[in-house]
Write a structure and sequence with these properties.
The protein is α+β, with helices and mostly antiparallel strands and 683 residues long. The chain is 31% helix and 23% strand. Strand 5 and strand 6 (90-96) form a beta hairpin.
Length: 683
């Protein structure tokens, strides 16, 4: 934890978009962080390359090409590559974040797995590889650390962003991959293809069934040597009782010669599922008597495995290793690694016994026997006619002529004919007809295969296998990849849920959040999605932004002030505003508001919502008060009493009002409205 807190990237934002939250893992090529994509508001795995790789421009250009190829691969069992870029001295890949653990964690905890579980874990891995192979991608680093198992049980193959596309050159000056799972052809500097991934998957199955890897050594070069010069033993040698079909499956996948392996992930997936359906429950549930969770069976003569770090998320074992490649890898390996030699100087594998041949071995032996019989039948065992030198001379002359003709034919076949080498032309973005014509002109026959491609329009060529620039024999078929256009996915329905729920659904569907606007709605609560664009079910590419309209709830209505207005006019004004007017049952007197007008309302101001109630109180007009008679009384007393009754008093003095006596008053002894004016005449 202390190391993570000291990491200078934690808490920073990479490329103005990815906020680094914590450190997940570190390996030989990169460090992986948990980050938040602030633009799309989702968690991602941010893989930051180590400086020695980030400063290698050739490596970065290759990584950019491979990341674009991997980003076009969309499959439930493949970790998606979301973005790739550089921010100053930081080079990074952005991948889908899978919350969970790795297959390495399972093997560390349980050791050897029963065949049912091992095959169930391998099935989605091979299905993901098959999808990649069909799209022209190879992984090159299949290992338990790159098999991610989500908390909800989903299984995905990770690190396709560091694989090399088939459409790119695969030769390199260093071996990229984990040495324990490295295919022999990669050790020897040969081109990788789908069968290289099959070999690694076979090594992984061996480890799942036995609890350990088939080869070990004190250095990576010793392990690499064994991949080239040894054959992987049968798992049943370490785990007695395993079904023979499982031995054959492992040895089929891990054949040293790639020609003897399944051609790609699809071929392996078919056989894998066939075996799962044909094995009995007893064979599928077979477990070694001594195998306990966490136990790793010991092998006589086997040294401790090398300390292996990982570059997988949420675990720490087996990094991708770089082994410098020499001009003669086999010689260097033999000089560097001192494995125990077997018969003929070949290093022995784990299986040193003479096993009984399995089904596939029997079939191979039968086919070889037929060939041997045919060869024997075509070879004379004695001269055609003994004792005639002249006839033998004629025969030898004929033989020499035939051999010369055959040699000339072979020279033509391999020099100028169908067996001659040719260079595969570049056909990207050409029409199918143009691409096929280019291939025919170069001497090749092509087989079209439809693939999804986000960049190339439908019906146009995407590339070839082998890739452009490859030197191959002209009789070998060329696969022409033809674009089906971008792969489309139906949008989920987002209306009726909250904005957070809509964001989660978009992340799950690998779509982007577009513009979010708000609108009032009298029936839908605030925060609920009213509509989306594009609509539900529309087929779009991954990453398409979806615009949302979110409810702000009912629109507030300012309460109109209708006090002093006649009752009918006031009620109409309230109703026109979308509110409900209610007349209070009791009327009140008011000396300033005429009868029938609104004297008060509740509420008098503020905001209400449509349909809310405003209570109106109607005036009865001013209260009627009887005016007493103050004639003959002192003017001061009369004025004081009248004001107490709420009247206004107007005093009219005659002759200066010397006596201060009220001589006359108007009105008098009558009921008048409260607040009326009473005139007093004073003498």
């Amino acid at each position: 934890m202390q190391e993570a807190t000291q990491d200078h990237l934690i808490g920073t934002t990479v490329d103005g978009r990815y906020q680094v939250r914590s450190r997940l893992a570190s390996g030989g090529m990169s460090t992986v962080y948990l980050a938040t994509d602030q633009r799309l508001e989702r968690d991602v795995a941010l893989k930051v390359l180590h400086p020695h790789l980030a400063n290698d421009q050739v490596f970065l250009e290759r990584l950019s090409r491979e990341a674009k190829s991997a980003a076009r691969l969309s499959h439930p069992h493949v970790v998606g590559v979301l973005d790739q870029g550089e921010d100053g001295h930081i080079a990074y890949l952005v991948m889908e974040y899978v919350q969970g653990h790795t297959l390495r964690d399972v093997l560390n905890q349980q050791g050897a797995l029963p065949p049912r579980l091992a095959l169930a874990l391998l099935d989605p891995v091979v299905e993901g590889l098959a999808a990649a192979h069909n799209s022209g991608l190879i992984h090159r680093d299949v290992k338990p650390e790159n098999v991610l198992i989500a908390d909800d049980g989903r299984i995905k193959v990770g690190d396709f962003g560091l694989s090399r596309a088939v459409t790119a050159t695969t030769s390199t000056g260093a071996l990229i991959g984990t040495v324990a799972y490295l295919a022999p052809e990669l050790v020897l500097g040969q081109a990788a293809d789908a069968r290289s991934d099959i070999y690694s998957a076979g090594i992984m199955l061996y480890e799942m069934l036995t609890g350990q890897q088939p080869y070990a050594g004190d250095s990576p070069i010793q392990v690499a040597y064994q991949h080239v010069n040894s054959s992987v033993g049968k798992p049943s040698q370490l785990a007695p009782g395993l079904a023979q079909d499982l031995d054959e499956l492992v040895q089929w996948c891990t054949a040293v010669d790639g020609e003897n392996r399944p051609v790609d992930g699809t071929a392996l997936l078919t056989e894998l599922r066939h075996i799962r359906t044909t094995l009995s429950d007893e064979q599928l549930d077979h477990r070694q008597p001594s195998s306990t969770p966490g136990a790793m069976p010991a092998v006589p003569g086997r040294g401790d495995a090398m300390d292996q770090r990982t570059e997988s998320i949420r675990t720490t074992a087996a990094p991708t290793e770089f082994i410098a490649q020499q001009s003669n890898p086999t010689t260097v390996l033999a000089a560097s690694a001192p494995p125990r030699p077997g018969p003929g100087g070949i290093v022995s594998g784990v299986d040193t016994s003479t096993p009984q041949p399995g089904k596939r071995e029997l079939k191979r032996m039968q086919r070889q026997e037929v060939k041997d019989r045919a060869r024997a039948a075509a070879t004379p065992v004695r001269p055609l006619r003994e004792g005639n030198p002249r006839r033998r001379g004629v025969i030898w002359t004929v033989v020499v002529v035939i051999l010369a003709v055959l040699a000339a034919s072979a020279g033509w076949f391999f020099g100028m004919g169908p067996g001659s080498p040719g260079t595969v032309p570049e056909v990207k973005s050409k029409t199918v007809a143009e691409a096929q014509q280019l291939l025919r002109t170069a001497g090749f026959q092509s087989e079209p295969r439809d693939v999804f491609d986000d960049d190339i329009p439908p019906g146009m060529a995407v590339g070839t296998e082998p890739p452009p620039g490859s030197q191959v024999r002209k009789f070998q078929p060329i696969t022409l990849f033809v674009s089906k256009g971008a792969q489309l996915f139906a949008l989920p329905g987002l209306t009726g849920g909250t904005l957070d729920e809509a964001k989660a659904a978009l992340n799950a569907a690998e779509m982007a959040l577009g513009n979010v606007t708000e609108a009032y709605d009298d029936k839908v609560p605030a925060g609920v999605v009213l509509s989306q664009d594009p609509a539900k079910g529309t087929e779009v590419r991954h990453g398409t932004p979806v615009a949302l309209v979110v409810s702000k709830g009912p629109q507030p209505i300012p309460v109109p002030d209708v006090r002093g207005q006649p009752q009918d006019a006031a009620v109409k004004a309230i109703q026109d505003a979308g509110l409900k007017a209610v007349i209070a049952p009791e009327t009140v007197n008011d000396k300033t508001v005429p009868k029938g007008a609104i004297v008060s309302q509740a509420p008098a101001n503020g905001n209400l919502f449509k349909g809310d109630t405003v209570t109106l109180t109607v005036s009865k007009g001013p209260k009627m008060v009887k005016v007493p008679n103050f004639i003959g009384k002192q003017a001061d007393d009369a004025e004081r009493e009248l004001k107490k009754l709420g009247f206004k008093v107007d005093v009219n003095k005659i002759l200066g009002g010397f006596f201060g006596t009220v001589r006359d008053q108007n009105p008098v002894n009558n009921e008048v409205p409260e607040g009326s004016t009473v005139t007093l005449t004073v003498v």
